[in-house]
Design brief:
It contains 19 helices and eleven strands. It has 467 residues and is of the alpha+beta class. β4 and β5 form a beta hairpin.
């Protein structure tokens, strides 16, 4: 029986400055729902209220078999404390099972080879602490979910109706050969986060709808970057900040039938990053570098970020000159960044309890509403989000009191991950290296940069055809 597939040269790619989260291998074609990114209107509010009412009703009607209170414990494996904290919501709702839900924090990078090996070895070795549920970072989720070691959620009794409030892109991403293999409690739509004080000074407005007009597409974005430059500001901290929004627009997969495919968005990103570099529109900082972090409080207009980014990556401190002087808009395009998928292993000794955990964290509207309200997670439940918006929840001090929920909800409806593959994280790391070399002039043309990516793939993946 096929278990986990070993990926070659992954540790090399993960050392290439990969971000916190990304994508994986499959799939069937699906269509995402189009939605507006306008500020909330009366019609949208009415729709939110109806969605919240409908889902609240359906949530009350859904039930799974309740595990016996003296049944086997399950072990939930992850790489840090986040999921462990979220499991408390399950334990609070079902205290009779609290002692049966055990958490194993491996303390490893969620996208690392070490984490993969630790999970694989724990499953293979079995024993009392065999993993029942594993956390899969979006960057490498399909590595895990594509394995026969992870069971389809329908085998646990979780139906499509139960998960119907999830944003479609999260369903598409974790559906492999027609079977949903993973579920997540959070959605991670991206946006453009900008400094309101700089916007007022340079653009004459800090209103999100009006600022959106200055970043509505990539050509306009570059025009605004020139305007910012003339005023003494940088548009972004580094050229690579634009990578995730651009490459999320791919219309084909990195690998098709074991043959490497370079989608047009790859060259689009390489050329756009080069324009940012040559135009001196950024400080040429790599994401997560010291300079990149310092730029939050320096003369940089904006960052591409997402839900968790707003609360846990922007390093403004309360009382600082920049604290609260931010807002957000859609930006040139919609995209996603990150997320954690949960999969149940075929070694799980108590699948009824594992199903209850997944259902409570990823389907239960009331629990997800509470989780979002208390932790600021943007939950993967349209009904919970609609109720949060209707209740006036979500105002963000980081964003000067603005409420980002409607923008995130609108953007989440437009994300399309049907072309994700398990190779994405690694190959996007090769893209980073090629882009840096092209920007600096080490590689002379965009064709040279593409060839450098192909050569990296040839060196690391002899099982793939690179034309």
């Amino acid at each position: 029986m096929k278990k986990f597939k070993k990926a070659m040269a992954l540790s090399l790619a993960l050392a290439m400055g990969l971000s916190l989260v990304a994508c994986g291998d499959k799939k069937e074609e699906t269509t995402t729902t189009e939605a507006t990114t306008e500020t909330t209107t009366t019609e949208a509010a009415a729709t939110n209220d109806a969605t919240a009412d409908d889902a609240s009703a359906s949530n009350a009607e859904v039930a799974l078999p309740m595990p016996a209170e003296d049944s086997d414990p399950i072990y939930v494996y992850s790489w840090n404390t986040e999921l462990g904290d979220r499991l408390q919501y399950v334990k609070d709702k079902y205290p009779q099972y609290a002692d049966l839900i055990q958490y194993e924090n491996l303390g490893l990078g969620g996208t690392s080879d070490e984490y993969k090996s630790a999970i694989e070895n724990a499953i293979a070795n079995g024993g009392d602490k065999v993993p029942s549920i594993i956390a899969c970072d979006d960057d490498v989720a399909l590595y895990f979910l594509s394995s026969e070691a992870i069971v389809p959620v329908e085998d646990l009794g979780i139906t499509a109706d139960m998960y119907s409030n999830a944003y479609q892109y999260t369903v598409d991403y974790a559906t492999i050969d027609g079977k949903l293999k993973g579920m997540c409690w959070q959605a991670t739509p991206g946006c453009f986060i900008y400094r309101t004080d700089i916007a007022k000074e340079v653009l004459g407005t800090d209103d999100p709808a009006k600022v959106q007009e200055y970043v509505k597409d990539w050509d306009t974005f570059l025009d605004t970057a020139e305007t910012m430059k003339q005023a003494g500001y940088k548009m972004l901290s580094g050229p690579s900040d634009a990578k995730k929004p651009i490459i999320d627009q791919r219309t084909s997969a990195w690998v098709e039938n074991d043959t490497v495919n370079v989608d047009p968005v790859i060259t689009e990103y390489l050329e756009f990053a080069k324009k940012l570099y040559d135009g001196e529109y950024t400080n040429n900082n790599a994401q997560w570098s010291d300079g990149w972090n310092t730029d939050f409080t320096d003369k940089v207009f904006g960052y591409f970020g997402c839900t968790w980014f707003v609360y846990w990556s922007i390093n403004d401190k309360e009382g600082s000159e920049t604290y609260g002087k931010r807002n957000m808009c859609q930006g040139p395009t919609t995209y996603h960044w990150g997320g954690t998928y949960l999969g149940v292993t075929d070694q799980c000794p108590n699948k009824e309890l594992a199903a209850l955990v997944l259902y409570t964290l990823c389907c239960d509207t009331d629990t997800m509403y509470k989780l979002s309200d208390e932790t600021l997670d943007f939950v993967n439940n349209k009904a919970a989000v609609a109720k949060l918006i209707a209740d006036g929840k979500g105002e963000s001090p980081v964003l000067g009191g603005a409420n980002p929920l409607q923008t995130w909800a609108d953007n989440a409806e437009k994300i399309n991950l049907q072309y994700a593959t398990e190779y994405d994280s690694t190959f996007n790391g090769y893209l980073d290296n090629a882009s840096d070399a092209y920007n600096s002039g080490e590689l002379k043309t965009v064709d040279d940069a593409v060839e450098a990516i192909k050569q990296s793939i040839r060196d690391g993946y002899q099982n793939l055809t690179v034309e």
